Amino acid sequence: MDYTERVVITGVGLTAPNGDSLEAFRRNLLGGVSGITTIETRFMGRVLAGVCRFDELKCQSKKDRRRGTRAGSISIYCAHEAFRRAEIDLERVDRSRVGTFLGITEHGTVETENEIDVIRQYGYDTKFWSHHHNPRTVANNPAGEVTVNLGLRGPHYTIGAACAAGNAGLIQGVQMLRLGEVDVAVCGGVSEAIHSFGIFASFAAENALASHEDPTKACRPFDTARNGIVVSEGGCVYVLERLADAKKRRAPILGEIVGYAMNSDAHDPVLPNPERVAECMKLAIARAGIEPRDVDIVSTHATATEMGDVQEATALRRVFGDFDGVYVNNTKSFIGHAMGAAGALELAGNLGAFEDGFVHATINVTDLDPRCAMRNLVLNVPRRIDRVEYILNNSFGMLGINSAVVVKRCTN
Q1: In a domain, 79, yes or no
Q2: What does each C-alpha distance from 166 to 10, 197, 269, 405 come to in angstroms?
Q3: What pLDDT shows up at residue 387?
Q4: Pairing relation of β-strands 184-191 and 98-104?
């Protein structure tokens, strides 16, 4: 095993509220197209949400979709798209050497709420409880549904890492490749959060649920008028391979994962600790073998909560100083907070910069909070820069879990 072996991205499949492919997602980010709308939610009425509109039956039968979960369906769609993009023919691959590692924020909440609502209509008689409930709600479900659908026989599991889970899935994929446990890693993050009324109700109870008369302007990271999170669903699955294997089969290479880090605040259930967040970024950058000034784009986690945004901005200033040559953006302003999928989607949204040289904007900022002011924070209009070599992708989560991933343009 080689703990320093180079690992590259050869495929990405995704569904986001504003795009169901890597190309469409990138196009809409550069074009300023938001994916936020309103939906009707049990007990909550109309709420703002990011809704995905991919074809659930493109890769599943109706029977399998009924037996499974929305998170599983999202994962299956994204995995198929990732393999297609990676130009991998599964009929020619040893499927026992393909591992599946998907990050999640939560799982099983949706199915439990739905089943309780069903038996409530029958006087809580449990004979009406679905026999599909257990396989739907086990924590490994989304990754497991992918393996069943695609016949993948390598290890699979989900990684519960709150809203840092998308990055955590990628990190696990890199580690398993370097350990020699798998030859192909299917990894990333997924969320079905908008289908749980409890998630909306909890954020509302914390006064952390966004509101705005125009859904497309509801998610406003760094703006003085920001008033909370827009809950979204989504998924983003990557195919990772060792560079040597990818080159051998002449695979398309979208980037190389050169650094990563995870740590814990050990401080507060919901409020990030700038010192620990900064340490996480510094460690990921050091492992990439570069200096902070070498980073071209920082993809922020900022969720549009008042102190969450401030704490991240504080951490960023500690790491990057005056941000000379370092550009900062935010993807949630377009799609809301996709929870377990957030980090994976946000990285995917920036990968196109290696080719087109644009830093997509943070939209909906009309009055920048001075506590969040950072040089080269790209607001409302994309910024063209000379060349993009390194992207730093931040994702943080409840109970103080922090993650950062560094991706490099791969030239050899």
Answers
A1: yes
A2: 17, 22, 19, 10
A3: 94
A4: parallel
CA 79/CA 369 separation, integer angstroms: 39
Residue 1 domain-assigned (yes or no): no
Q: What is the CATH number of the domain that holds 378?
A: 3.40.47.10
Who's near 270: CB < 8 A, 6+ residues apart? 206, 398
How far is the C-alpha of 157 from the C-alpha of 226, rounded, in Å? 36
Q: What is the DSSP letter of 115?
A: H
Instruction: Report the share of the chain in percent with pLDDT over 90.
Output: 97
- 208 and 344 inside one domain: no
Q: Which of 219, 248, 277 is the last residue of a domain?
A: 248
Contacting residues for 269 by C-beta, under 8 A, at least 6 apart: 398, 399, 400
Average pLDDT, the chain: 97
- Based on the domain organization, do 91 and 234 belong to the same domain? yes
Whole-Å CA distances, 102 to 9, 281, 390: 15, 22, 24
Nearest to 161 by CA among 404, 406, 351, 407: 404
Q: Is residue 367 part of a domain?
A: yes
Contact of 378 with 327, CB cutoff 8 Å: yes
User: In the structure, what pLDDT confidence band is assigned to residue 412 with cuts at 50, 70 and 90?
Assistant: low
pTM for this predicted structure: 0.97
Question: Is 266 in the same domain as 337?
Answer: yes
- Does 253 map to a domain? no
Alpha-carbon dihedral sign for residues 107, 113, 114, 115: positive
Same domain for 145 and 13, yes or no, is yes
Domain that holds residue 350: 259-408
